[in-house]
Design a protein that fits this description.
Blueprint lengths: L11 H32 L3 H5 L13 H7 L2 H31 L8 H10 L7 H10 L17 H12 L3 H9 L4 H12 L1 H17 L2 H6 L8 H20 L4 H30 L1 H16 L4
Helix pairs in contact: 1-13, 3-13, 4-7, 4-10, 4-12, 7-14, 8-9, 10-14, 12-13
Length: 305
């Protein structure tokens, strides 16, 4: 018997399909990655060339001055600390409540279980609007309060549904055995359920962390204390300032003021791009950590008919 492995013949149509697939996915990868790459190379290139749109694929006149300047912005580190705290605490709260409520909604002993579950799911489809939401948050004492970033998102119907569906895929014999051994609800949840549902917890953690880190509307509507400003809101302010600088350039009347305005606008644009990189980079690091749990969590925790 020959040890030489016979090569499987590849159909030309399959080969063509594979090539087309690789080309399409390569194109979409480029479309997704290039904006971040473009912003990054503009932050490390000449501010003047960046303002004139001369930086497209390769950095020119490399420097790190923009990052040094950004590090000297007094409010930036405070905003970073606020964003970091809201992301960590908010993610922990949302993951904990989603996991526990998802588990409780699978227990037949829970009082009026179906009614409470339907009530939670109904909130996914009905929204009172921004004004009632604002009035409610203010009446609850969350105006200019750090907990406005945590409590309103602590209970998420979508994540509860994901966790509930995942828990239902666990063999019921595990919880039955724990109850026979005398374990209560909390003991069963902590010792039996939590270790098994790690994939869906990682999935919820990714979604929540990204949402918490990128959120700025709650800061815009409910926070006026600069000590509670987040990174995203700081970036929002820089974008508005850059727009004001652009109007200033257009309204400049003499050459000296025009030159000064152009220099100021160029620097503002570069700083804005640098702040964008600083804001986006930390959350990108979250995905590699939870990537191995992500697909399994979504597939098993998905809503099934």
């Amino acid at each position: 018997m020959s040890n030489t492995k016979k090569r499987r013949k590849v159909d030309p149509a399959d080969r063509l399909l594979s090539i087309v697939t690789y080309v399409i996915y390569t194109f979409f990868t480029f479309v997704c990655v290039y904006p971040f790459y473009y912003i990054f190379i503009n932050t490390i290139s000449s501010n003047e060339l960046s303002q004139r749109g001369k930086i497209t694929f390769w950095p020119k006149e490399f420097h790190l001055t923009n990052y040094i300047n950004v590090s000297h912005i007094p409010s930036l580190m405070d905003a970073f600390n606020v964003s970091l705290r809201r992301t960590i605490i908010g993610t922990l709260f949302t993951v904990a409540t989603s996991a526990f409520l998802g588990y409780m909604f699978t227990r037949e002993t829970m009082w009026k279980r179906k009614i409470w579950y339907r009530f939670v799911v109904a909130t996914m489809y009905f929204n009172a609007g921004i004004i009632p939401w604002f009035i409610t948050m203010k009446n609850l004492g969350l105006y200019n309060n750090f907990w406005v970033y945590i409590l309103p998102t602590a209970v998420s119907p979508f994540y509860i549904v994901l966790c509930k569906t995942f828990v239902e895929s666990i063999p019921k014999e595990l919880t039955d055995a724990a109850e026979i051994d005398g374990a209560g609800t909390l003991r069963t949840f902590w010792s039996i359920i939590l270790p098994v549902i790690k994939p869906i917890l990682a999935t919820v953690a990714i979604f929540t962390a990204v949402a918490q880190w990128n959120s700025f509307q709650d800061t815009l509507l409910l926070v006026t204390d600069q000590k509670l400003y987040t990174l995203q809101f700081t970036l929002y302010n820089y974008i508005n300032q850059a727009s004001s600088l652009k109007s200033l350039v257009n309204n400049a009347t003499n050459s000296s003021s025009l030159a000064a305005s152009l220099a100021h606008a160029a620097n503002a644009t570069s700083i804005r791009m640098t702040v964008t990189i600083v804001v986006v980079f930390p959350i990108i690091l979250v995905y590699p950590i939870f990537q191995r749990f992500f697909v399994k969590g979504i597939m098993i925790g998905a809503v099934k008919g």
